[in-house]
Amino acid sequence: MPLCRIAYVDHTLVKCLWRAATCPGLTVYEKMVPVYQYLDSHSVFGGKDCWRSMEMPETDANFVIRPAEQRDVADVIALDERITGISKREYLHDLFERYRTRKPDQRFFYVAEAAGRVVGFVVGEIRAWEFGSEPCGWVFAISVDPDEREESVGSALLDEICGRFRQAGVTRLRTMISRNNHLLMSFFRSHGLMAGPYLQLEKDLT
Predict the structure, then answer these.
(1) Is residue 141 part of a domain?
(2) Residue 97 belongs to some domain of the structure
(3) Is the pTM of this model over 0.85?
(4) pLDDT along the chain (206 residues), means of 10
């Protein structure tokens, strides 16, 4: 690669590399995809989207992805509280009941189980015509035990719910995250999510 081309790579790439180096909860593949995306956009590789030819490394998964059951709710609550520092016991119990009994073909609650314990979960559903949006799949929550984050558990959970959305005829995935959550931002970016056509607006009502 010519030295002048290397010198042209700007601070955006530096940010990508810094996030890759400081996000221990991601696999090597997940860390590097945003970097390859940036290089592609600047024709450093000379081929559009050539990074997509990369495949996730094959691993012998020591976990299974399955629909959440009543017995899993306590583990989900504990895992979520461990990661967020906030107890959402009533909310998650109510969420599970609603997802289990209403529109099960449009609402999905999956867990990752390893050695008999829940090590991750994902929650999402198909929503339509809110804010003028056509039907799309929304991921409302995804969490993985910090001790299992380099085992591709998060990727498997996201792949599972995306597969369910596709089966239901949905072709677009959306989510919303805090702009300060760099770990989750890097994870979603590594799976091809980027800024969409909608803008969040809010007002303090106190």
Answers:
(1) yes
(2) yes
(3) no
(4) 42 55 54 55 45 46 92 96 95 92 90 95 93 92 92 94 95 93 93 91 94
Where residue 144 sits, what CATH number does that domain have? 3.40.630.30
The parent domain of residue 150 ranges over 64-190
Cα 141 to Cα 139: distance, rounded to the nearest angstrom: 6
Same domain, 34 and 118: no
The pLDDT of residue 12 is: 55
Q: Indicate the SS3 state at residue 69.
A: coil
Give me the pLDDT at residue 33, please. Answer: 55
- Tally of structural domains, the chain: 2
Answer yes or no: is 195 within a domain. no
DSSP letters, the chain, are --HHHHHH--HHHHHHHHHHHT-TTS-HHHHHHHHHHHHHHTTSSSSTTGGGG--PPP-----EEEE--GGGHHHHHHHHHHHHS---HHHHHHHHHHHHHS-TTTEEEEEEEETTEEEEEEEEEEE-SGGGPPSEEEEEEEEE-GGGTTTTHHHHHHHHHHHHHHHTT---EEE---TT-HHHHHHHHHTT----S---------
Q: What pLDDT is stored for residue 130 in this prediction?
A: 82
